[in-house]
């Protein structure tokens, strides 16, 4: 419930601070006194966009602050979703700075207008002619029926399953699209994989393979050079080995004459031994050297295949070819496995579809069961509100697709007078009739769900007498379950309030200001007497006012 409202420097309001109670609160005042200004300030708290033209003193900050007791509203999840600090005494504040910039705060935490609108829609409902038009909207009509049906959990589960269903549909279509795309490439990818597999890349050492090719391809040159090298080393009397042997003998003769000669003789002996080993290894290399044209052709062919693969795939390493092969193998495997994945997704989608159909059937059955109750309550209330011949016909029909709230289509038909035919609300109900229908619906809803505080803005326009008295009774009954405000011009309704506020203007130093004050019991009598008989209050009007209040 709205517990307090503070307005400073807004339109004709200099500063206003008022406390509200539960029950039915009446707001009255002469035409032009500023009731619309009060609503305008409250609308800013509810998330309406602001501009500098609404500020009274352009050099000062404009502030509108409203306090709400939200203990009974179960709004903790919404506060968590909006990343706000929860408090049962929640304060919403709007500020319009001299620069024209607007700021919003919820429990002193800066917030966005979207977040403010989301929250405030759960706190207060300003019922105006514009809002009455919601009655003709299909979504609102469904919300009314669903409130009576009391299947909120089923609707929430349906909504979640519908979200899952749409996600599965999207995933399935993606798989099918992928399959169509991959099938186009499948044959080529499979050819490439087979080509790479045939090359047995994992068993190839390219460096060794190239070395083998060079040896086999140059076997004659290698044999000739090995023979020449051996000749230079081992030629009798003139070969390096024989020459070195002579050097060794000469040094051995003087090795006993000093350490330096001894060391030199040992080094020459080591070189002589190393040359002997080299000769043996050259012999081995020469013996191992053989001509193998077939092996040369095989290696040449393998190298050619690898080089062709390098060029085809724009790489230069065996490791890169292996990575490409693995990637292509994965694509081929994915293509071959898509049918199974699609089948699994179709089964999953079918299961969710069955659950949705079951939930939709339960929702529809519950709706069908409450339609007669809603019609009976509406027609009964409207009869009391001066529409004794008002009749409703509410048709629910199953559709063949999943809608956001089930599988029902809804027709909310109305007949105002005997002898006429049923038609859509927007075509068959006048503005005054829509207002009374909306009042009746709000009254019925308040029996089933916790509604936010509601402010009826001159819902009594165009009615009088006993009808207005019944309107007041309905609002009074509603106020036993929720906080109700009524801005009214009718004394019959004003007398029903638990508390009564008056909007009035004053002129101070040639400046007009709007004020709001809570009336005492005596002031209420005077105010209602004026509403009955005008500014000149008669004893009869005073007596009538007292009678209404009592």
From TrEMBL:
Keyword Nucleotide-binding: yes
Native source species: Winogradskyella poriferorum
Gene3D superfamilies documented for this protein: P-loop containing nucleotide triphosphate hydrolases (3.40.50.300)
Gene: recN
Top-level taxon of the source organism: Bacteria
Protein name stated in the entry: DNA repair protein RecN
Family: Belongs to the RecN family.
Entry keyword set: ATP-binding, Coiled coil, DNA damage, DNA repair, Nucleotide-binding
Coiled-coil region(s): 165-219, 335-369
InterPro entries to which the protein is assigned, alphabetical: DNA_recomb/repair_RecN (IPR004604), P-loop_NTPase (IPR027417), RecF/RecN/SMC_N (IPR003395)
SUPFAM superfamilies per record: P-loop containing nucleoside triphosphate hydrolases
Role, per record: May be involved in recombinational repair of damaged DNA.
One Pfam family it belongs to: SMC_N
Residues in RecF/RecN/SMC N-terminal domain copies: 2-509
């Amino acid at each position: 419930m709205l517990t307090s409202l503070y307005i400073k420097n807004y339109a004709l309001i200099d500063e206003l601070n008022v406390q509200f109670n539960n029950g039915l609160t009446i707001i009255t005042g002469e035409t032009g006194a500023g009731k619309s200004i009060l609503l305008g300030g409250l609308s800013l708290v509810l998330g309406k966009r602001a501009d500098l033209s609404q500020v009274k003193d352009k050099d000062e900050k404009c502030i509108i602050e409203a306090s709400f007791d939200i203990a009974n509203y179960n709004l903790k999840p919404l506060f968590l979703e909006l990343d706000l600090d929860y408090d049962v005494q929640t304060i919403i504040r709007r500020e319009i700075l001299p620069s024209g910039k607007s700021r919003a705060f919820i429990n002193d935490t800066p917030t966005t207008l979207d977040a403010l609108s989301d929250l405030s829609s759960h706190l207060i409902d300003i019922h105006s002619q514009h809002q009455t038009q919601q009655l003709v909207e299909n979504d609102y009509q469904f919300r009314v029926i669903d409130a009576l049906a009391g299947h909120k959990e089923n609707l929430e589960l349906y909504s979640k399953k519908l979200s899952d269903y749409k996600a599965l549909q999207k995933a399935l279509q993606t798989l099918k699209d992928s399959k169509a795309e991959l099938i186009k490439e499948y044959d080529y990818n499979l050819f490439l994989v087979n080509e790479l597999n045939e090359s047995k890349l994992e068993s190839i050492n390219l460096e060794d393979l190239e070395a083998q090719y060079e040896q086999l391809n140059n076997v004659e040159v290698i044999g000739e050079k090995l023979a020449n090298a051996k000749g230079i080393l081992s030629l009798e009397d003139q070969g390096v080995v024989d020459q070195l042997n002579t050097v060794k003998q000469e040094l051995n003769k003087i090795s006993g004459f000093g350490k330096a000669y001894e060391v030199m003789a040992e080094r020459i002996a080591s070189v002589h031994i190393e040359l002997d080993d080299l000769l043996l290894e050259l012999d081995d290399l020469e013996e191992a050297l053989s001509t193998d044209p077939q092996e040369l052709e095989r290696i040449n062919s393998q190298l050619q295949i690898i080089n062709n693969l390098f060029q085809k795939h724009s790489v230069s390493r065996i490791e890169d070819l292996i990575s490409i092969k693995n990637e292509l193998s994965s694509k081929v495997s994915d293509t071959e496995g898509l049918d199974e994945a699609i089948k699994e997704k179709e089964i999953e989608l079918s299961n969710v579809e069955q659950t949705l159909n079951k939930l939709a059937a339960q929702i529809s059955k519950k709706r069908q069961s409450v339609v007669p109750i809603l019609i009976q309550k509406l027609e009964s209330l409207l009869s009391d509100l001066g529409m004794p011949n008002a009749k409703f016909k509410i048709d629910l029909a199953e559709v063949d697709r999943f809608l956001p709230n089930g599988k029902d289509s809804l027709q909310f038909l109305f007949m105002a007078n005997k002898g006429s035919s049923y038609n859509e609300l927007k075509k068959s109900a006048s503005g005054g009739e829509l207002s009374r229908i909306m009042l009746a619906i709000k009254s019925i809803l308040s029996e089933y769900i916790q509604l936010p505080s509601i402010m009826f803005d001159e819902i009594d326009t165009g009615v009088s007498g006993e009808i207005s008295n019944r309107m007041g009774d309905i609002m009074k009954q509603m106020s036993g379950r929720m906080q109700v405000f009524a801005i009214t011009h009718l004394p019959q309704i004003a007398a029903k309030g638990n508390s009564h506020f008056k909007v009035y203007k004053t002129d101070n130093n040639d400046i007009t200001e709007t004020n709001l004050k809570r009336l005492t019991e005596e002031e209420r009598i005077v105010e209602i007497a004026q509403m009955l008989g005008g500014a000149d209050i008669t004893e009869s009007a005073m007596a009538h006012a007292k009678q209404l209040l009592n």
